[in-house]
Amino acid sequence: MPQDTNRHPLPADFRWPDGIRAAALFSFDLDAEAVMLGDHPETGRYLDVIAHQRYGPRVAVPRILRMLDRLDLRTTFFVPGWVAETWPDVARSVRDAGHEVGHHGYLHESVRGVDEETEVGYLRRGLAALNEVLGIRPVGYRPPSWDINYRTPGLLAREGFRYDSAMMDSDHPYRLATSPEPGAPTLIELPVHWSLDDWNRYNYVPGYTGNSPVGRPSEVCAAWAEELDAIVEVGGLFSLTMHPFVSGRPARAAALERLIERAAAIDGLWLATGEELASWVETLDLPPVLHEPPVIRP
Amino acid sequence: MPQDTNRHPLPADFRWPDGIRAAALFSFDLDAEAVMLGDHPETGRYLDVIAHQRYGPRVAVPRILRMLDRLDLRTTFFVPGWVAETWPDVARSVRDAGHEVGHHGYLHESVRGVDEETEVGYLRRGLAALNEVLGIRPVGYRPPSWDINYRTPGLLAREGFRYDSAMMDSDHPYRLATSPEPGAPTLIELPVHWSLDDWNRYNYVPGYTGNSPVGRPSEVCAAWAEELDAIVEVGGLFSLTMHPFVSGRPARAAALERLIERAAAIDGLWLATGEELASWVETLDLPPVLHEPPVIRP
Amino acid sequence: MPQDTNRHPLPADFRWPDGIRAAALFSFDLDAEAVMLGDHPETGRYLDVIAHQRYGPRVAVPRILRMLDRLDLRTTFFVPGWVAETWPDVARSVRDAGHEVGHHGYLHESVRGVDEETEVGYLRRGLAALNEVLGIRPVGYRPPSWDINYRTPGLLAREGFRYDSAMMDSDHPYRLATSPEPGAPTLIELPVHWSLDDWNRYNYVPGYTGNSPVGRPSEVCAAWAEELDAIVEVGGLFSLTMHPFVSGRPARAAALERLIERAAAIDGLWLATGEELASWVETLDLPPVLHEPPVIRP
Amino acid sequence: MPQDTNRHPLPADFRWPDGIRAAALFSFDLDAEAVMLGDHPETGRYLDVIAHQRYGPRVAVPRILRMLDRLDLRTTFFVPGWVAETWPDVARSVRDAGHEVGHHGYLHESVRGVDEETEVGYLRRGLAALNEVLGIRPVGYRPPSWDINYRTPGLLAREGFRYDSAMMDSDHPYRLATSPEPGAPTLIELPVHWSLDDWNRYNYVPGYTGNSPVGRPSEVCAAWAEELDAIVEVGGLFSLTMHPFVSGRPARAAALERLIERAAAIDGLWLATGEELASWVETLDLPPVLHEPPVIRP
Asked: In terms of Cα–Cα distance, which of A72, A92, A79 is closest to A244?
């Protein structure tokens, strides 16, 4: 059944490969301790918080790799440089299982309010770490906490990235401008949304994060399945962002496995890595979208 | 089946047109970036937040207009003046599809604690923008965040508005006094309630808004359907307030479409625009309700 | 079926009247504007907040009175003195429908940290208002927000109250000591709990109250029905605290009516007013419970 | 059916006793007033808060003991020293029913940021209280609020503890190192997780704790049952942490009893006390896990 493009027109010039009507990216942000240390350095002194985060590399990543292997799914892990340095065997196990590794900051730093030099420093330090530990140069970038500045796309292009995954303004991948200049370099944007993140659904660290009740895994994955069906219907990208320390717990991983099986059974749905998606979208002649700050006249 | 007025008496002198036992207003507040910029100007520098808001004009409004066209429903969009200026084609597409455009502030400003001159300034700047971009003079006003002062009804009447939609003290439209003077101008009030808003159910911008879990669309719309049935039972106005950037995501829009179809199938339920409702209520001889501040004696 | 007292022994010396195995008090706190004004006086200037609260006396109380009449249920409304003064016809309609009126502060003041004279002042001002508007002397007291001091039981006894409804330390009514002296006056305590309050389930006033999602009425009442069944099982008091402005909305009232019908159909469940419950418990020879502050030795 | 160790390999060298494939620890933290007084000493002056906490020793512990007796289950109660001193009969009733008593601080103190001497003081004062009131020397320790320092395992070993229950980095018990020195003493760790705690699901004390809606007991226990099934599947430890004042309310206790019955019926699931679990794990030759602070190079 082709996607009903009268009801749900695709963005101008966008199309999927032949036989494909929608795509799904089941990505993992391998944050481990970094997501707490970046924003709240004092948590490094709290063993309870640190142990909570270390569940990711210690238990969850191996479980998720086994699961992805059973599902025969190659996907994308976004890995902060510090995590690669701190958990090199874990990072290598991800790479060696054939998954794409993307950039996710060095210590999961927010770029809100930082100057350009600092922001570039985070990018380069993350790149150096991934190169040193994994011998790779990532082509994809997902900003820690999805915090992004107007200058960021330009910085990413300068550092050789091919895609970004941070924006919540589209159901479809698009071409991301880095400047208003004609011919300026572009990136591919793989959009995301808070409704497709495991953080709001499950995560709970009193005093730090989690203002929602801890979700029941079968209900969380049923909600995501509903989002998936609707995104397939509009021919978009179902981009699910998970964290091993959050989604790798037994009942959550079990529910997730059923969700991925369900997705894999949907006719015409392409389960892809970020790089595969970006490579396809690069072949399309899409008008670049330039993000500029809102203008408020006094 | 007529509404059971023994069990649920209508307010004095209130009645619906012949054959009608209740009404539904499926309205949209086209807030886009303005709802963040008005309260939190620093978010203009955060591309992630701004992109989140731009989903509304970029993706959600076109989707919602297509949906409303399929449903053959004309409704009301409340549009901040700044949004009309910033997204003129989007605002015009709403108008050109036959929907009513109402006033929703200029930059979605709260009027809490502002002086009268400032408040009038917001009203006039919004009016000027809607006139310039759309060539219209709105008859309806919905206060940003539903914040309203005791003086506001008088200001609205002076600026030529015919109805307001902000109060949570009624299940039925009523006549809104602007002063205790006999013969003073009146408006029509189309009441609202937080249980019939998509904000608490879905919206989530960490650090800014959303302290609830992200709702599952089928469950949110089932809850609204329950509210709808009960409001039909009491012969009231089901006044649902939505935001394109919130409710226009694929699964939410799909669930909303089913909810509107359900409403359209209810015998004797009138799906109307704000202006249509106000026009009807203006024909009734309703006693004006004057809102005065509570008095606390020391 | 008698209550299984092997499995669920009643407190020492406690019993229900013959044929009764548990009781239910469906009480209402008629807070109206007072619950906001007491804690947050600035909200008096915000018409939106004030209108939200006025839904109680304007719409919800009449609806609830009609419902209770259909159900043939007499219950207890706890009314702040200021609310009686501000909405005298509403307060009288409650009294005239045969419901008990209890004391609920004057302006819904918290007694946390106030001195004894101030606390007595709140009590007396509330008594004076209920006397002047309703010509009654209440026998029951429910502290605003359930805030209570160790001295409060003594103050209540001195002012002639017979029961209090504030404590969360029991499933059963008990005798409340006012002092360690033998022969000191006692009150009856009708305990409550946050799980049996409509506030956490439904209420939402951004910036002021409500950190939970707005509940779906049928689910809220299903949760309360589950609590009811379990309390019947242990032979206790199901003491549900509601607020007209919260629970009187159409779908909530409809779900509540079904819950009360369900309760009324439970064999051996006594639906009573606070005063009826207190009168029964006064006939029992229960050991008074004296509340003293916790002692922490350095 | 043996646990599927291809799909879910056990940690290196870990195994359960013959015939066992997973374990469950249904533990209770008997916090009573201490959990509020430790963090918020001013609550000692608020009778409403204190009464809320006293539901634990007054009503919930007897109910839970009767329930555990019906279920023929011996389990572990972690008891702050102050609670044992303040409620000696309650603490003795727990011991006399054959349950293990573990250490849970003196006044439920957080150890975040305290110096070693202070932390040792909390441990010793708790030990002294349990010895004086109960004549026992606990072998297990659960940190109040699960707050733990890197030095804590060493302190615990020095004070003669055999196990700790605080960490969220494992699905299985493990050996906990106290120092990098070979031959240094070790403890057994019985891990926990916030998803298996009744606090986030049910607890609500406005202004102090509870930012989630009050859960419906049958739904909470259904969520826990789902976690249980998944943990059995991976051959881990289902470690449920409850508080009498929270989980001992009628509907919650009823749902909990059904959950424990369900667990007891799972073939190969061992319902054990903390000490029984630790004793088993001590027999295994597990590599000690040393927790060290994260290192961040500038």
From this structure: A79
